[in-house]
Design a protein that fits this description.
The protein is mainly alpha-helical and about 100 residues long. The chain folds into two domains: about 50 residues, no CATH class; about 35 residues, no CATH class. The chain has four helices and no strands. The longest helix is centred in the first third of the chain and has 49 residues. The N and C termini lie far apart (about 50 Å).
């Protein structure tokens, strides 16, 4: 979830937390935030499991287009347009 947060950002968050909350309330705020994130993650995991059980094979049918969108998410607009225009049709290159 927070894979793109480095040590510098973590230190900055702790310093800002110390200034805003003070050293007395910072540990409690960290415990509350970590507990809330854990509950949210557990809730989302349970919702995914419930959907998978309720929908059965249709759940995977829904995931396939989302997987394709995820692949396109990392592409630049130019790369996406090139892939769309040239995917499987190279007749303009070969002249066939």
């Amino acid at each position: 979830m927070f894979a793109n947060i480095g040590w510098g950002e973590m230190i900055l968050l702790v310093v800002v937390g110390l200034v805003v909350l003070g050293p007395e309330r910072l540990p409690g705020a960290i415990r509350w935030a970590s507990g809330s994130l854990r509950q949210a993650r557990d809730y989302l995991s349970g919702a995914t499991t419930a959907l998978r059980q309720e929908l059965g094979p249709e759940f995977e049918d829904l995931r396939e287009p989302l997987g394709e969108l995820q692949k396109l998410r990392g592409m630049t607009p130019r790369a996406a347009l090139t892939k769309h225009l040239l995917d499987g049709d190279d007749s303009w290159i070969t002249g066939d």
